[in-house]
TrEMBL record:
Subunit annotation: The basal body constitutes a major portion of the flagellar organelle and consists of four rings (L,P,S, and M) mounted on a central rod.
A Pfam family: FlgI
Protein name, as recorded: Flagellar P-ring protein
Keyword Signal: yes
Keyword Iron-sulfur recorded: no
Protein's GO biological process: bacterial-type flagellum-dependent cell motility
GO CC annotation terms, alphabetical: bacterial-type flagellum basal body, distal rod, P ring; outer membrane-bounded periplasmic space
Gene: flgI
Length: 374
């Protein structure tokens, strides 16, 4: 049986629509580690101030960044080099930088971390520079790591596109394994033989499903929900058994509840993304030369006499969009937001028109979904 390409193109939108409806209606289990995290098992941000030396004349201009000169003088004094009073330093090969990194959970002294080096002065480039030993501190002011190494600026080069020349960002570099952990962060994991799971998104239905799945797998009273986000889980006493238990807990399959409807609109490009099918109530919106009228009528269908059928009420929706006198676009389908957006795009509505209309629908109570504008 041969199928021509025009036939495939004609039925492709129908097939895609069917696939989208099937995907929206189906639910699948997720690993618990993808839905929740263990309280206390987290990263800690580190930051430090240092100097990058060895630049090829692309460092800070010392007349405009006096802190660079002060840092060099302080470093030399700590190394036993005393400069004569009133000495003027012209440092073209030095740049003051901020060094940032993240200390992962359970990191121990001797482990290495990747660091990011960012210029804080007016250096033109950090390419080819070397970061001198820089202490990295946490939010409590304690030193947790020491950073040092050669700075690598990724993607250095220039590319021409027509009459424009684009030069890559040269004031930020990275040092792989450029920091060494010097202090571990104490954690109270499993204190009192209890851990707390925190859902990524607060949801009472999902929290209830997680508790049921844990209790079915590990026995009654193993887990209990504290609220819509926090779940208390009882763990074994020994550390080895606790690690095995948490490993099995993270791999536990859980089917999350359906999330609340959400509509995301990009005000610059007019892109509209919905996490599920969003329906609209009856409303009428007028914006400039655009008018959107949505009417929903309930049509009852009575069963035949002496039959065992039931009365079925169907919704017949009519979407009418006008742009200019005499130009009308009429869609007879369900009151779907996707159809309204499609019809607006078909008559050339701008992203600002979409934004104003969706905000008006939300304010009028016709759009029963969270509207987020980015």
């Amino acid at each position: 049986m041969n199928i021509s390409m025009p036939s495939v193109k004609r039925f492709l939108p129908i097939l895609l629509g069917a696939l989208c409806i099937a995907a929206a209606g189906s639910s699948h289990a997720e690993r618990l580690k993808d839905l929740a995290s263990i309280q206390g098992v987290r990263q800690n941000q580190l930051m430090g101030y240092g100097l990058v030396v060895g630049l090829d004349g692309s460092g800070d201009q010392t007349t405009q960044t006096p802190f660079t000169v002060q840092s060099v003088v302080s470093m030399l004094q700590n190394m036993g080099v005393n400069l004569p009073p009133g000495a003027s330093l012209q440092l073209k090969n030095v740049a003051a930088v901020v060094v940032t990194s993240s200390l992962p959970a359970f990191a121990q002294p001797g482990q290495t971390l990747d660091v990011t080096v960012s210029s804080m002065g007016n250096a033109k480039s950090l390419r080819g520079g070397t970061l001198v030993m820089t202490p990295l501190k946490g939010a409590d002011g304690q030193i947790y790591a020491m950073a040092q190494g050669n700075v690598v600026v990724g993607g250095v080069g220039a590319s021409s596109a027509g009459s424009r020349t684009t030069i890559n960002h040269l004031s930020v570099g990275r040092i792989s394994a450029g920091a060494t952990v010097e202090r571990a962060v104490p954690t109270a994991l499993g204190q009192d033989n209890m851990v707390q799971l925190e859902l990524n998104d607060s949801d009472f239905s999902t929290a209830s499903r997680v508790v049921d799945a844990i209790n079915r797998r590990f026995g009654p009273d193993t887990a209990s929900a504290q609220d819509g986000r926090v779940i208390r889980v009882r763990t074994p006493g020994s550390s080895d058994a606790r690690v095995s238990f948490l490993g099995a807990l993270e791999s536990l399959p859980v089917t999350p509840a359906q999330t609340a409807a959400k509509v995301i609109l990009n005000a610059r490009t007019g892109s509209v993304v919905m996490n599920q099918a969003v329906t609209l109530d009856s409303c009428a919106v007028s914006h400039g030369n655009l008018s959107v009228i949505i009417n929903t009528e309930n049509t009852p269908s009575q069963p035949a006499p002496f039959s065992q059928g039931q009365t079925v009420v169907t919704q017949n929706s009519q979407i009418e969009i006008k742009k200019e006198p005499g130009q009308v676009m009429l869609l007879k389908a369900g009151t779907s937001l996707a159809e309204v957006v499609k019809a607006l795009n078909a008559i050339g509505a701008t992203p600002q028109d979409l934004l104003a209309i969706l905000q008006a629908m939300k304010a009028a109570g016709s759009l029963r979904a969270e509207l987020e504008v980015i």
